[in-house]
Design brief:
The complex is a heterodimer of chains A (281) and B (221). Chain A is of the alpha/beta class and 281 residues long. Chain A is built from ten helices and 13 strands. Chain A folds into two domains: 32-127 and 224-261, D-Maltodextrin-Binding Protein, domain 2, CATH 3.40.190; 129-216, D-Maltodextrin-Binding Protein, domain 2 (3-Layer(aba) Sandwich). Chain A is globular. Classes of the chains: A alpha/beta (281), B mainly alpha (221).
């Protein structure tokens, strides 16, 4: 009897905790456009740990393609100052909902599940799942070559899920928390391939310490459509960000940013704004 | 919410099962290694005592994250236990947890050994028992009875510590929870609450069981 009461108390404690937490996510619905115009400051969520896309240096400076896009868009919206907020894949939705960030430019693939809770502007890039191998390894050049190989991908990544869907247990897959871990395993010889978006892989291959040691296979499995995440329902914001992106495509700063930050990915034509449903091949 | 449970339920059950497997194997391993270490720390040979003390002081004072990462990424680069990577990392995580937890089991058990009056060991020796026999027949059975409740606390800590195995890709509860947070950003708090509840459901009975066992088998002197 006593034990039952204790279990009931535990359950009650956990439930109360959950309800208390969910009650504190109050929301104000100010469009990102108005915030940029009036406050001149925007909080933008970017990845802190992805070379070529969003990387925070030890001195705190941010660089990368996503960061360049964020700077361009923020300037077009009228903001004069940006606070970059490091975000993980797991807290992008939460940060937007809680108003911790005004927009997210963080290798944010547009999916139907995410569109339920986030409004997306863009797309500003279409990445493809690809394979990273050691520079001297010629045995892997297409997805089917992964069969029977030791492969690493990120936890919670669509790329890892796709490998499991396509090949099941035929590919010897491990999923580590970060791609840095995967790349170390590849360099150390414990795995033969790392797979995820070509943008992420190209960023690692281009890092100074990895020069000449790694190569991107250049085979595509999928389209990953990167969008800019805004608070759900901010249609005014989406329209303004779309306009800024279109300007970035038109005045060629999009291509310049891409070739500066991600020299290893093929230069493609910019995607069509508002078209999120791009079938693969 | 109901959609979430029906679409992810299978994965969640697999994750919980993995947490239980890692916990059970690590608990068994650290009980054995911990007992050996405790025996070393009370052994008459000074070399054994020194090795035992060194081991406990290094492992007890190293963060578990470091131990697990060392096992997965350091030890894993030297030895391969299984060819299938997920199995390989599973065992590396168990090795890490056993290595770490056995230091705590050893110290708990040693405090139990200290509750056994010295006269008993002297008496055992005087009737001709060797050191191992003294430990096995006289000292350890009493020591274990004295520390059942604190061993329960070590086991609870171990069960919660298994979440760190996610750092080397073991698909246990925390790993799966983090994945679900990425794809279901709209129900973050229910997901957290659900996984917290799972750990409470596992650890609360463990605490109660060990409390009951301690009463069931008191030290009779």
């Amino acid at each position: 009897m006593r034990s039952l009461r204790m279990i009931a108390a535990g359950v009650a404690a956990v439930t109360t905790f959950g309800i208390a937490l969910s009650a504190c996510g109050g929301s104000s619905s100010v469009s990102v456009v108005d915030k940029a115009k009036n406050d001149k400051v925007l909080n933008i969520g970017v990845k802190p740990d992805q070379p070529g896309l969003g990387l925070q240096s030890s001195s705190g400076q941010y660089s990368g393609f996503d960061v360049d896009v964020a700077r361009y868009v923020a300037k077009k919206l009228g903001a004069t100052k940006i606070n970059f907020v490091p975000t993980l894949s797991a807290n992008r939705e939460a940060f937007l909902q809680q108003g911790k960030v005004d927009m997210v430019v963080a290798t944010y693939s547009v999916t139907p599940e995410r569109q339920k809770v986030v409004s997306f502007a863009g797309p500003y890039y279409v990445a493809h799942q690809d394979i990273l191998v050691r520079a001297n390894d010629n045995s892997i050049s297409k997805p089917d070559d992964l069969i029977g190989k030791k492969v690493c991908s990120g936890q919670g990544s669509a790329s890892g899920d796709r490998i499991q869907e396509l090949y099941g247990s035929k590919v010897n897959l491990i999923r580590l928390p970060g791609y840095g871990d995967c790349v170390n395993q590849l360099l150390g010889g414990q795995v033969q391939a790392v797979t995820t978006d070509n943008t992420i892989l190209a960023g690692f291959a281009a890092q100074q310490q990895n020069q000449g040691k790694l190569k991107v296979a250049g085979t595509f499995f999928s389209n990953e459509i990167y969008g800019i995440g805004l608070k759900k329902g901010d249609s005014k914001g989406v329209a303004a960000v779309d306009k800024a992106l279109q300007a970035m495509f038109n005045d060629d700063s999009w291509r310049a940013a891409l070739s500066k930050e991600l020299p290893q990915v093929p230069a493609e034509t910019p995607p069509t704004i508002g078209k999120f449903d791009i079938p693969f091949r | 919410m109901i959609n979430f449970v029906s679409s992810e339920g299978h994965l969640i059950l697999l994750a919980f099962w993995m947490t239980l497997k890692v916990s059970a194997l690590s608990a068994a391993g650290s009980l054995i290694l911990g007992t050996v270490l405790a025996a070393m720390r009370v052994a008459p040979l000074s070399v054994l005592r020194a090795v035992g003390t060194l081991y406990v002081n290094i492992l007890r004072n190293t963060p578990l994250t470091l131990v697990i990462l060392f096992c997965g990424l350091g030890l894993g680069s030297i030895i391969t236990i299984a060819d299938l990577q997920t199995t390989n990392y599973f065992w590396l995580a168990v090795i890490g947890l056993v290595t770490y937890t056995s230091a705590f089991v050893c110290e708990v058990l040693r405090s139990g050994v200290n509750t056994v009056p010295l006269g008993q060991a002297d008496a055992a020796r005087s009737v001709g028992l060797t050191f191992t026999q003294t430990l096995r027949i006289v000292v350890l059975p009493q020591a274990f009875r004295a520390v059942i409740a604190p061993l329960g606390s070590v086991l609870i800590a171990l069960i919660k510590n298994t979440t760190i195995a996610a750092a080397i890709g073991v698909p246990e509860a925390f790993y799966t929870m983090r994945n679900e947070l990425q794809s279901h950003g709209d129900i973050v708090i229910p997901i957290f609450a659900g996984y917290a509840l799972f750990f409470v459901v596992i650890t609360l009975p463990v605490g109660l069981l060990f409390g009951w066992l301690a009463k069931r088998w008191p030290v009779a002197r």
